[in-house]
């Protein structure tokens, strides 16, 4: 994982608090806003709207799709902290202004809060999603 240790620890604390009390305490929400900046609140909104879906193939490969606030579906790879949205390319890769875009943060938060939708897909469907993303970028 390439997230700073403080971000990893915050996500662990959120998971623990949510498992114990089914909500995230204000101090952890403030920490989220402090570490992830302007992505924090929109990411929480995406989690509240249950916009995160984990796609899992029979071989166990997984990827996440997040329905963005604009209605567009973005593919996120939590293993390498990558999202197909323009904000990720601009704010994270080009400008280094943010650790993550709101979509990847929503993936991490929905994992911590058990709020992921689950969808079983065939190997072929997963491959087609990955190939479609590659075509859009190329």
From TrEMBL:
The keyword Magnesium does not apply. Keywords: Metal-binding, Zinc, Zinc-finger. Transmembrane segments: none annotated. Residues 74-112 form the SWIM-type domain. Pfam families: SWIM. It comes from the Eukaryota. This is ZSWM7 protein. It comes from Bombycilla garrulus (Bohemian waxwing).
């Amino acid at each position: 994982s390439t997230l700073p240790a403080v971000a990893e620890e915050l996500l662990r604390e959120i998971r623990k608090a949510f498992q114990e009390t089914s909500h995230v305490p204000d101090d952890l929400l403030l920490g989220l806003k402090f570490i992830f900046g302007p992505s924090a609140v929109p990411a929480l909104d995406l989690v509240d709207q249950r916009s995160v879906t984990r796609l899992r193939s029979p071989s166990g490969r997984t990827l996440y799709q997040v329905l963005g606030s604009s209605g567009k579906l973005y593919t996120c790879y939590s293993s390498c902290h990558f999202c197909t949205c323009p904000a990720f390319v601009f704010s994270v890769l080009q400008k280094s202004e943010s650790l993550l875009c709101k979509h990847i943060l929503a993936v991490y938060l929905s994992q911590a809060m058990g709020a992921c939708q689950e969808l079983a897909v065939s190997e072929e469907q997963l491959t087609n999603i990955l190939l479609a993303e590659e075509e859009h970028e190329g």
